[in-house]
Design brief:
The protein is mainly α. The protein has 16 helices and six strands.
Length: about 375
């Protein structure tokens, strides 16, 4: 518990100090548009941390007798919340227990994979400590130039935004000549405890909770530290974002599946059905279509045809809706955000392929993580991928 408290207080101080020392970006017009648009809608990490610190300490004490083997309590929580049979107080109590148990399970599997440090054997906890909250994460305002796909600014926004408010925020930023999109996040790792969307399935919660922890783990490594500098606006790099998100996604996918197999697979009957695909009975493949759209947009923008690229994206958004896929807004900011995740159809960057090659060459997940967490350039990544 002392280590968790130390980490939480330290995180608050870091956020406060670094947030106050960020150098201003050269896009003064953009900054003014952002400030005007998000006034009253910004999510304050500092305020949330101050409110959360005592709850985290209390939860650690209250749940000290829980173990990683208490999977039934997690199953009961997800089952009861889906059926909506509990009172708010009962839901809150079960939720806190589920968060603690899942955290213990993730820690156990991380240790089994050798992804540990000396603090594990001394204090019995992982560093950074694993703690997350099942709640609605903040929204994220993503901003990209119009003439290229590049994630140049992110702003955290409040959770309870309406669609009209999202559209209004985006329109105000776009008046400065940029592309903007308000994204609903599945998780957030820049807070402690981290956010994991409470409406997610058990499998998705395992993956998301692990992924947000991996981001915090990487923050103490060269690659993750560069990502922190990017988040603070001190040293922007789309390649660093892509490497971090891709690495965290790959590691969390493996760990999340191992946690599920170890603690939950026995609760659910095995299925012989093939894994779901994005191809419909009529042969429509969403992933392939989205990748083609992204490639065509890149071609239009490279040729300087910005207006045509935007018209094309509007047309394709309408077409996707006729195929049963609703995307509220398809623009440069959409691809700038989703294009940083190597496992999404919006992704076309070769960085993800290089990282996957390194994973294939690695003898273990620990070896893969230890190799990647020191990579801070695409040139270094390419050299490692070609070994």
């Amino acid at each position: 518990m002392k280590l968790k408290l130390f980490f939480l207080i330290g995180l608050i101080l870091v956020i406060t100090q670094t947030g106050a020392s960020c150098a201003p970006t050269p896009q003064s017009g953009l900054n003014k548009s952002i400030d005007k648009a998000v006034k009253g809608y910004r999510f304050s990490i500092f305020n949330w941390e101050v409110r959360s610190i005592f709850g985290e300490i209390r939860q650690t004490w209250d749940d000290r007798n829980l173990s990683a083997n208490d999977s039934q309590q997690v199953i009961d929580y997800f089952s009861d919340t889906q059926q909506n049979t509990l009172s708010p107080s009962q839901t809150a109590a079960m939720q806190k227990k589920a968060e603690t148990i899942i955290g213990l399970q993730i820690r156990t599997v991380l240790r089994q994979n050798g992804i540990i440090n000396p603090f594990d054997s001394i204090f019995g906890v992982s560093f950074p400590p694993i703690a997350f909250e099942l709640a609605e994460p903040p929204h994220l305002l993503v901003i990209s130039p119009r003439n290229q796909i590049d994630r140049i600014r992110d702003v955290l926004l409040l959770q309870n935004l309406t669609t009209d408010q999202m559209n209004q925020l985006e329109n105000q930023v776009e008046e400065s000549g940029y592309s903007a999109l308000v994204v609903e996040l599945g998780g957030l790792g820049v807070t402690y405890p981290t956010f994991v969307n409470a409406n997610s399935s058990l499998h998705d919660v395992l993956n998301a909770a692990t992924e947000e922890w991996v981001h915090q783990y990487l923050a103490f490594k060269p690659l993750g530290f560069r990502y922190v500098l990017d988040l603070l606006g001190i040293s922007r790099s789309q390649d660093i974002i892509t490497m971090n998100e891709s690495l965290a996604g790959m590691v969390s996918s493996e760990i999340g599946q191992q946690v599920y197999d170890k603690y939950y697979s026995s609760y659910f009957p095995a299925t012989t059905n093939p894994p779901p695909t994005t191809a419909s009975a009529q042969g429509f493949d969403f992933n392939a279509t989205m990748r083609q759209i992204r490639q065509n947009v890149d071609a239009y923008l490279s040729a300087g045809q910005t207006d045509r690229a935007e018209q094309y994206m509007d047309e394709q958004r309408d077409y996707l809706q006729t195929q049963g896929y609703y995307i509220r807004k398809l623009n440069q900011a959409y691809f700038a955000f989703y294009g940083t995740y190597a496992d999404t159809p919006a992704y076309t960057d070769p960085v993800g392929t290089a990282i996957q090659n390194i994973r294939n060459q690695s003898s273990s997940l620990k070896d893969f993580l230890n190799t990647m967490d020191h990579v801070t350039s695409v040139s270094r990544l390419d050299k490692l991928a070609k070994k």
